[in-house]
Amino acid sequence: MMAPERRYLLLILSLGLLLGGCMHRPPSSTETAAGTPPSLLLGDFEDDYGIRYTITLQTWRQHPATTFHLVRWEPEGRYLIARNDADNPGDGGLWTRIDWVELSGMPPYRWAFCLSAYDAPTAAEAEATTLAVRETPRTGCNGYPFSRMRPSDRENR
């Protein structure tokens, strides 16, 4: 028979493993990521390279085949944390941090984003990656420009 202290320790370790596995599960289609994003970031967009995106409370989809499952929006810090879909062409199952900045005086572009991390092994490591410099969006994404976003003109495609 196992000592009560050892049984208790095994129970705690088992619960930790069980809960740890749940924490890394992307939100389902009926769940929403924690936090409330600015409405400016939700909808259908096209960047200045002609790539189309659909962004909802739960997913950031870069068409045609890349999906990020949004785990947490941080509107005060202007970033989000996401888990890369396992079926993405690259970095499946890893973690991403996307930083954004609102743009003024650049119509039709209203905001821009930077993939600060896209292949982090954990959510914490993705969140700790703070390379975006919003004050200089032309070079503030690790020496590269933020990707500027405008509403998509899907009806004309």
Notes on the protein architecture:
- By secondary structure, the chain is α+β, with helices and mostly antiparallel strands.
- It has one domain (27-156).
- It is built from 2 helices and 8 strands; from the N terminus they run αβββββββαβ.
- It has helices spanning 4-23, 123-128; strands at residues 43-47, 52-55, 59-62, 66-74, 79-84, 95-102, 111-120, 147-151.
- The chain has an 8-stranded antiparallel β-barrel with strand order 1-2-3-4-5-6-7-8.
Describe the structure in brief.
The chain is α+β, with helices and mostly antiparallel strands and 157 residues long.
Keywords, separated by commas or semicolons:
157 residues, alpha+beta, 8-stranded antiparallel β-barrel, 2 helices, 8 strands, globular
